[in-house]
Design goal:
The structure holds 2 protein chains of 2 kinds.
Chain A lengths: L1 H15 L22 E10 L2 E11 L4 E10 L6 E2 L1 E15 L2 E14 L8 E12 L2 E12 L1 E2 L2 E2 L3 E10 L10 E13 L3 E2 L2 E2 L5 E14 L2 E15 L9 E10 L4
Antiparallel strand pairs in A: 1-2, 1-17, 2-3, 3-4, 3-5, 5-6, 6-7, 7-8, 8-11, 9-10, 10-13, 11-12, 12-15, 13-14, 15-16, 16-17
Chain B lengths: L1 H37 L1 E8 L4 H12 L4 E7 L4 E6 L7 H10 L3 E9 L2 H9 L1
Antiparallel strand pairs in B: 1-3, 1-4, 2-3
Classes of the chains: A mainly beta, B alpha+beta.
């Protein structure tokens, strides 16, 4: 019943929402937005210890500085197979300083997940801040996110802080209407609090993991292919937790002409 | 003799057809040249333009302006050329608005009348 009550909200947001991201870190945050009234469709496949996940994202530019995204993750494995939540995100770029062939930007981010199958699945809310410097040759990004995890019956997963720094390089300064490869290297850090179950703190949960993530962005006009690997290199996980495995990501993004 | 009389007018028609075809081709070429010579070029200096993927939005926003026939984006120097239909006036506020909507900054713009015919004549002299 509560899921049904959520449905109109989801539909309304989906109607409002469509959006984009362009040249940004694959595992971190970036301040890029899409042109006003522009929209984009993106699909990504992610492989990690949790199994394979596909995200289908619709992105929309309300203004040139304000973008919204609706994301439908589809899990191929595990207990939550299928689509069991919708993630809604928004980004507002509050600072932009442009120069010839370069730009500095700052943006705030916020988002939340809504379970859509009998309220199963994790609920969370996040807020973040990102900085980006982009020139013809170099990219630099940094970002921080705080994620508040909701309760799943008696279980409360620990809240998470994610920080990222990324450097990107465009080896060939090609012009518009030419293929454009950009190589990325990210340093991603995740700190998580211990989880709580039935009022008890779980000792073998939480801790931190530092990962190094090389990636590639390859664009041609309004199409971009993305691929990257997140490799955990250092961890300080609590209890007897093992170092997490690598994460793989591959995706494609299409930008469409503005609707006005 | 009779044969000569009958073939003579056909030759005339043939030459007349060639002459008329040539005349029409010349007239249409002149008309096309006239249209080209009346085309206006607007040169924009755009800041923040660094990647081809983002330039797509700028291209679409500028092409949506009434009268813009073609755009030519040069990323390495931030120059965007607009080829505008004759007798169409695009003011700087419209350009600034469209460039803002694309997420970039208009630094300056310059409008000039292209006159290809004159250039050709100068070359010939």
């Amino acid at each position: 019943m509560r899921a049904l009550l959520n449905l109109p909200i989801i539909v309304v947001i989906l109607l409002l929402v469509e959006q984009v991201n362009a040249h940004e870190p694959l595992f971190g945050l970036g301040p890029h937005t899409i042109y006003q009234y522009g929209y984009a469709l993106e699909t990504e496949f992610e492989q990690s210890d949790a199994g394979m996940l596909n995200r289908l994202e619709l992105l929309y530019g309300i203004t040139a500085d304000w973008a919204v995204t609706a994301s439908l993750p589809y899990a191929y494995t595990g207990n939550n197979r299928g689509v069991n939540k919708i993630v809604l995100r928004t980004k507002y770029r509050f600072f932009r300083h442009d120069k010839i062939g370069a730009s500095k930007q700052l943006a705030v981010h916020a988002g939340f997940s809504l379970p859509i199958q009998n309220l199963k699945g994790s609920k969370y809310v996040f807020a973040g801040l990102s900085y980006g410097y982009e020139s013809r040759r170099h990219y630099f990004f940094s970002g921080i996110r705080y994620r508040f995890n909701g309760w799943e019956r008696t279980l409360k997963r620990g809240n998470i802080i994610l920080t990222d720094v990324a450097y990107g390089i465009r080896p060939w300064l090609l012009e518009y209407l030419q293929p454009d490869p950009v190589f990325l290297l990210e340093l991603n850090t995740q700190w998580q609090n211990r989880s709580i179950n039935n009022g008890k703190t779980l000792k073998s949960t939480g801790g931190y993991v530092v990962s190094l993530s090389p990636g590639l962005l390859f664009s041609y006009r309004n199409i971009m292919l993305k691929a990257g690997i997140k490799i955990p290199i250092i961890n300080g996980l609590n209890g007897g937790q093992k170092m997490p495995g690598k994460e793989y990501i591959i995706g494609i993004e299409f930008h469409f002409p503005p609707i006005f | 003799m009779k044969g000569d009389k009958t073939t003579y007018p056909i030759k005339v028609y043939r030459w007349l057809f060639v002459f008329l075809f040539g005349l029409i081709s010349l007239a249409s070429a002149q008309e096309a040249n006239q249209k080209k010579s009346e085309q206006t070029q607007i040169i924009l200096q755009v800041e923040g333009l660094s990647c081809p993927f983002c330039a797509y939005g700028l291209e679409k926003k500028l092409k949506a302006i009434d009268g813009v026939k073609k755009t030519d984006i040069k990323l390495n120097n931030g120059i965007v050329k607009l080829y505008v239909r004759p007798n169409v006036v695009i003011d700087s506020l419209t350009l600034k608005k469209k460039i803002d909507e694309a997420g970039f900054t208009l630094k300056k713009f310059n409008r000039k009348q292209l006159n290809i015919k004159n250039k050709i004549n100068k070359k010939n002299h």
